[in-house]
Amino acid sequence: MLGHHYTHTFLETAVASVNAGCNLELSYGMRNNVFMHIPQALAMGNITLQMLRDRVRPLFYTRMRLGEFDPPAMNPYSSLDLSVVQSPEHRNLSLEAAVKSFVLLKNVRGTLPLRARDLSGRRLAVVGPFADNPRLLFGDYAPVPEPQYIYTPWRGLEMLGANVSFTAGCSEPRCQRYSRAELVRAVGVADVVLICLGTGVDVETEAKDRSDLSLPGHQLELLQDAVQ
């Protein structure tokens, strides 16, 4: 609210937030924590003790329901580790969710979906900065993944047993340095070409807004060259 000039001080922000029903702050440490000014607001009569209790109650109720105050032995989630989270059953469910959430804007000549049985003897080229860069596959506020569980487009397609070649064309989403010759060599001999483009957190994320939706750097040129 300070950045938008709705309030002028942390004290004003704390008062306005509590009165509006806000009870949780995503802060940048204790020094910049707006809600640290609540005791002052309470002492000045800007908020009431009952209002403060009403805001705090659901927070502690939720924490209690999550077992946060229970001994670890009483919390069934304490025994969960990565072997459970990344179990075959959970991974298969994640795969099913991914497959069922695809949106095909245009499927010319029934090209998709690609099936392993249809790729025998065919050559695939996977190109673009997102074709084999695990770091770029996760958005803002994503967890830190285990590398062994990350499947880039190239790595995933290699599992189909097809003849798959790869070139990035440009190594990162900003695509400032683009090798057209490298791209042409890869797609020129391919029967099927998959082009992996986008932005990623290097280009747009919180506090990195853009004024247009165009592809960064030479990515559009890469796409046009691949299609040509």
From TrEMBL:
GO function terms (MF aspect): alpha-L-arabinofuranosidase activity; xylan 1,4-beta-xylosidase activity
The protein's name in its UniProt record: XYL2 arabinofuranosidase
Keywords: Glycosidase, Hydrolase
UniProt entry tagged with the keyword Hydrolase: yes
Domain of life: Eukaryota
Annotated Pfam families: Glyco_hydro_3_C (PF01915)
Gene3D superfamilies linked to this entry: Glycoside hydrolase family 3 C-terminal domain, Glycoside hydrolase, family 3, N-terminal domain
Domain Glycoside hydrolase family 3 C-terminal residues, every copy: 103-226
Gene Ontology BP term (one): xylan catabolic process
Database matches in SUPFAM superfamilies: (Trans)glycosidases (SSF51445), Beta-D-glucan exohydrolase, C-terminal domain (SSF52279)
